[in-house]
Amino acid sequence: MKNRDEYSVSYLTAQSGEFYETKGGLLGYRTSDADYPRVSLYRMFPLHDLRRFISVREEKHSREDRRGEIGVIEDIDTFPAEQLELIERELERRYFVPEVLAVKNVKEEFGHTYWETSTSAGDRSFTVFDMNNSVINLGEGRVLVIDIDGNRFVFPDISKVGEKALKYIDIWL
To answer: pLDDT-derived band of residue 62, with 50, 70 and 90 as boundaries?
Structure first.
C-alpha cells in the first residue's frame, strides 16, 4: 500500500496543454511532451460540483490495459471558450441522465427488474440488476437508478412514480 506522500495529482490548465477534437469526433488532449488522441472525462464529485475537479484519463483499449489518469481539471471555466465547449460536450455525453416522467410498467424476473418508462429523452426501457447497488437516494425525493449497461436515470420526485414502481424502489432506499 502506498503511503500518503507517494500520491500526487497533476492539475491540468489551459497553459499546460490543450483539448482538441479528433478527425473521428473524439476528445483528445496534448501537451508539449505527449499527445493523447482519446481521453475520457470523469466528474470526481458528480452529484454536487459539476464544473470542478474533472479527472482526465487515457482511454483504455482492454480490461487489462492499465492506462490511467493524466491529470485533474480544477475548474473547467478556466479554459478558453473553444476548449470549454469540447469539455462540456464530452461531459454531457458521459453524464446524460434523462428524467423519468412516468413509469409505464415494471416487473421483476430472476433478480432483474425491467422498466418501461417515459423520460425527458422519450420512451426508454431498461433493466436493473442488483437494486441494492443500483438505486441511489439523492435526497429531497430524487432517486438515481443505474441500469445494467451503466446508463443513469433520475426520478425527480419518487412520490409521483406510482404505487407499483414505488414498491420496487422504496425497499432499496
So the answer is: low
Distance CA 18, CA 32 (A): 10
Sign of CA dihedral 123, 121, 20, 53: negative
User: Can you tell me whether residue 82 is helix, strand or coil?
Assistant: helix
Q: Can you say how many angstroms the Cα of residue 53 is from the centroid of all Cα atoms in its chain?
A: 14
Residue-wise pLDDT for 98-143, tens only, equals 999 989 998 888 889 899 999 999 999 999 988 888 888 888 889 9
Sheet with 11-12, strands from edge to edge, namely 11-12, 69-75, 52-58, 39-43
Ramachandran angles phi, psi of 89, nearest 5°: -60, -40
| Cell numbers for 77 | 471555466
Instruction: Give SS3 for 132.
Output: helix
Residue 56: CB atoms within 10 Å: 22
The length of the chain, given as a count of residues: 173
Residues with Cβ within 8 Å of 25's Cβ and at least 6 positions away in sequence, in order, are none
Taking residue 132's Cβ as centre, other Cβ atoms within 10 Å add up to 7
Task: Specify burial of residue 29 (Cβ count, 10 A radius: 0-12, 13-18, 19+).
Answer: buried
Closest to 134 in 3D by CA, of 143, 125, 146 = 146
Which residue's entry shows cell 496534448?
30
